[in-house]
Write a structure and sequence with these properties.
InterPro entries: AB_hydrolase_fold (IPR029058), DNA-binding_regulatory (IPR052920), Hydrolase_4 (IPR022742). Helices cover about 35% and strands about 20% of the residues. The protein is α/β, with parallel strands linked by helices and about 350 residues long. The chain has a single domain, classed as Alpha/Beta hydrolase fold, catalytic domain (Rossmann fold). Helix 2 crosses helix 9.
Length: about 350
């Protein structure tokens, strides 16, 4: 017996589903389920030293943020700390499934990473493209300052994490020694313009404006008062005080260098340099990029003021992109779908 043909969905149903997916893309991207066992062993040999992982929680706005610290064994109060901020569809697993942890070890720095609210296994249901995340960054840094008073701190952010780092610097200036900004976006407006240019270049402006207005209302409702469509990293860049190393993939279609990283770097008030490599938004970064990051972190976390700014001037042109193997597959099927190609 043949099954009856499925009823064709109406245009209204398709439009509603498409709009709901658009809202989820902004405030509720795919979430990664994992366990602390996926973070690997608590002790790890890196660059001639043993790093010990300590998991902890920070409560911000009644939400528990799941955090981890990797520090040299026997060094409870490190003097150099890197805070890594993941992208909107990733989590703190990114630091152990990529060369990020090893890169920080090259700079002889401790590494701290956490799941933003609404990501990974932290509490919360939504993200805000950096608006509320910047205050979560400050809450975690307050905990870092508690167990490592006087430590020199750099922030390394990717995509939404890079936006959160920039916005944090605007609201809390002079707290960090340097920034690594991987695949940052200029503003939500710029992201929207790029998307329309690719998907519907002939869309009427009045229709686009109507959709954006509805999107802002839906985002405020789902986030209980926050409007991620107002994110503007350009203004934050114009007020920056810490030297920054910008990174961007030449084939990045989500945050193309021409409309995001380059304008941001041009607006950036403090010393900065942009490195463009052969890659996409979520592709593995070439090994030479991590080499430059390690050199920059070591300079920014050094006692000598101005060393990082002077170093950035030597990063004029990047070497040719080198071929690099993709990260090895993750053991957990739930984790394997994550954006962990940092």
């Amino acid at each position: 017996m043949t099954e009856p043909p499925k009823k064709k969905e109406s245009k209204i149903t398709l439009i509603r589903r498409g709009y709901d997916n658009l809202v989820k893309t902004v405030v509720r991207p795919p979430r990664i389920a994992y366990t602390t066992e996926d973070l690997g062993p608590t002790l790890k040999a890196l660059r001639g030293a043993v790093y010990e992982r300590t998991d902890f929680e920070v409560v911000h706005n009644k939400l528990k943020l799941k955090c981890s610290r990797w520090a040299r064994e026997g060094e409870p109060r490190p003097k150099k700390v890197v805070l890594y901020l993941h992208s909107n569809s990733s989590c703190r697993l990114a630091v152990v499934r990529s060369p990020v942890l090893a890169t920080c070890a090259c700079a002889r720095a401790a590494l701290v990473s956490f799941d933003f609210a609404g990501c990974g296994i932290s509490e919360g249901d939504t993200v805000t493209l950096g608006l509320r995340e910047r205050d979560q960054v400050e809450a975690v840094l307050a905990e870092v300052r508690r167990w490592a008073p006087g430590a020199r701190v750099c922030i390394w952010g990717r995509s939404m994490g890079a936006a959160a780092a920039l916005l944090h610097g605007e609201k809390y200036p002079d707290e960090v020694r340097g920034l690594i900004l991987d695949s940052p976006f200029l503003s939500f407006r710029a992201l929207k313009n790029d998307l329309i240019q690719r998907a519907a270049p002939k869309a009427p402006k009045c229709g686009v404006a109507c959709v954006m207005c509805c999107l802002a209302c839906s985002a405020r409702r789902r986030t209980k008062g926050c409007n991620p469509t107002k994110v503007d990293c350009g203004r934050a860049a114009a007020a920056a005080t810490a030297p920054a190393l910008f990174l961007a993939g030449a084939r990045d279609k989500l945050a193309a260098p021409a409309t995001h990283a380059r304008p941001l770097e041009a607006l950036y008030k403090a010393p900065s340099t942009l490195l463009v490599f052969d890659g996409e938004h979520n592709s593995p970064r070439p090994s030479w990029v991590y080499d430059r990051c390690a050199t920059f972190l070591a300079a920014a976390l050094d006692d000598a003021p101005g060393l990082a700014a002077a170093l950035l001037e030597t990063f004029a042109e990047a070497p040719p992109a080198s071929v690099r193997r993709s990260p090895r597959p993750l053991t957990s099927p739930a984790v394997a779908t994550a954006d962990l190609s940092d």
